[in-house]
């Protein structure tokens, strides 16, 4: 997928159609090593090229509509909620256009819940740093686990909406699936 993106970027810069200078082109994905918080995952790793499109209206609402001070906690939370609302509506509308008969509520739920989870993450990080003095980089291991667990558990509905309706083809990445095995154990225990 990166090669297609780079060809589009090359065309966009040389033609002046999308970007004027090469410095405006962002990588498709950032470094996976930055995924020790959800904020880093969404802002530095996943969909780098969409960040500006989501940040611009979010920042405008935070600063000019809500009048939240730049860099403040309130400004950050408003920006999270607006960006995920825009992204959620975009993903929902794209799915709805493809299959009008489905409601895709799990997709909307994923994008509605994520900024609230990021709020909890911000609070936990703030408390850990200020009250407990946790500033050591070794705590990033906990962050990687947190990010993995949250994304894996919360994206189940969103992914289910996409796979069940044929919008995304599912294929095994491994010869076995630890997630599938855990879900089967969980489903069996309920019945």
Description:
The protein has 191 residues and is mainly α. 68% of the residues lie in helices and 0% in strands. It has helices at residues 2-15, 38-45, 48-65, 73-98, 105-130, 140-164, 178-190. Helix 3 (48-65) packs across helix 4 (73-98), helix 4 packs antiparallel against helix 5 (105-130) and helix 5 (105-130) packs antiparallel against helix 6 (140-164). The model has no long low-confidence stretch (mean pLDDT 83). Pathway: Secondary metabolite biosynthesis. The chain crosses the membrane at residues 108-129, 141-159. InterPro entries: Wax_synthase, Wax_synthase_dom.
Give keywords.
191 residues, mainly alpha, 0% strand, globular, O-acyltransferase activity, Wax_synthase
Secondary-structure map with pairings?
Blueprint: H1 2-15, H2 38-45, H3 48-65, H4 73-98, H5 105-130, H6 140-164, H7 178-190
Helix pairs in contact: 3-4, 4-5, 5-6
């Amino acid at each position: 997928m990166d090669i297609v993106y780079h060809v589009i970027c090359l065309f966009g810069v040389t033609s002046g159609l999308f970007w004027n200078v090469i410095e405006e082109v962002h990588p498709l994905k950032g470094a996976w090593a930055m995924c020790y918080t959800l904020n880093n995952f969404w802002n530095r790793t996943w969909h780098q090229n969409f960040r500006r499109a989501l940040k611009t209206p979010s920042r405008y609402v935070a600063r000019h509509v809500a009048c939240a001070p730049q860099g403040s906690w309130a400004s950050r939370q408003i920006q999270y909620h607006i960006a995920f609302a825009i992204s959620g509506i975009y993903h929902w509308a794209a799915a709805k256009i493809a299959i009008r008969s489905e409601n895709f509520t799990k997709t909307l739920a994923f994008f509605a819940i994520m900024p609230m989870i990021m709020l909890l993450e911000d609070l936990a990080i703030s408390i850990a740093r200020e009250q407990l003095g946790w500033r050591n980089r070794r705590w990033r291991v906990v962050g990687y686990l947190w990010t993995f667990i949250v994304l894996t558990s919360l994206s189940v509905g969103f992914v289910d909406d996409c796979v069940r309706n044929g919008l995304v083809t599912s294929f095994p990445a491994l010869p076995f699936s630890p997630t599938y095995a855990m879900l089967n154990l969980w489903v069996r225990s309920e019945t």
